Amino acid sequence: MAQKTMIQAITDALAVELRNDENVLVFGEDVGNNGGVFRATEGLQAEFGEDRVFDTPLAESGIGGLAIGLALEDFRPVAEIQFFGFVFEVMDSVAGQMARMRYRTGGTRTAPITIRAPFGGGVHTPELHADNLEGLMAQSPGLKVVIPSTPYDAKGLLISAIRDNDPVIFLEHMKLYRSFRQEVPEGEYTIEIGKAAVRREGTDVSVITYGAMVQESVKAAEELEKEGVSVEVIDLRTISPLDVDTIIASVKKTNRVVVVQEAQKQAGIAANVIAEINDRAILSLEAPVMRVTAPDSIFPFAQAETVWLPNHNDIVERIKEVLAF
């Protein structure tokens, strides 16, 4: 198996599905000859042609409308929103149209659309480029929301997303694009959407997280292991639907929980995870479920980003707090 970055794994997944199904189309701003801002689609237009991998105007609303129309004509659109902070320009298409397609048509039509977009902090982007808006998507019924944290998962989950008959929002954390490599199999494989992964087994406390915070949580767990603390790290991978079974099994195992997200406390999905735990396993808890999040403020300009974003030190501190309760 080849060692690949996440961006390479994403390109690989797109190529696999373009070869696998002639109805798969890839489009967005600068995804053609330029290969996208992060080169996620590099080389695809040269291999598959301008009819299947093509640029669109700088109009997210148009990208969304095009995706819906193509889906209704039995294509499988893979549309890129150049940065997820621009999703406000296409919210009606996403939450008001494609998310409701199956219900609105009584199950006679579906919207097999994958919306790809980079997001997330730590790379000093301009305003609106890094915003953590995944909570808006997770709170929109009819959408599946996937956030991989490793190259292996990125490829398998993206292939599953493209093959799904309902709309999938596939969010790619920019900090993870080229931060590390991992063995990724050649050819096709899938990972089930809606299934979390146990990244690290533990017995003292469960850390439930997703995206770039998975790496921060594992780092915190490794530090605490030196102090005799056993931390279990759950990578949600899909934030809608949640893998409640894996969450609750971990809670009942460790009896203490910290939920970690990069998004602000009022955003993201940490509050929903905590509500599910309280509904289903409150008698298993030996301490309140605690959170590590960004502050409830607008995502800051690049100069203040490192101060604002949660990190492994914040996670260590919160784990010690829940253990001492």
Automatic annotation (TrEMBL):
Cofactor annotation: thiamine diphosphate
Q: Which InterPro entries match?
A: THDP-binding, Transketo_C/PFOR_II, Transketolase-like_Pyr-bd, Transketolase_C
Assigned keywords, A-Z: Oxidoreductase, Pyruvate, Thiamine pyrophosphate
Question: Transketolase-like pyrimidine-binding domain spans which residues?
Answer: 4-179
What are this entry's molecular-function GO terms?
Answer: oxidoreductase activity
The answer, when asked if Oxidoreductase is one of the entry's keywords, is: yes
- The identity of this protein, by name, is Putative pyruvate dehydrogenase (E1 subunit beta)
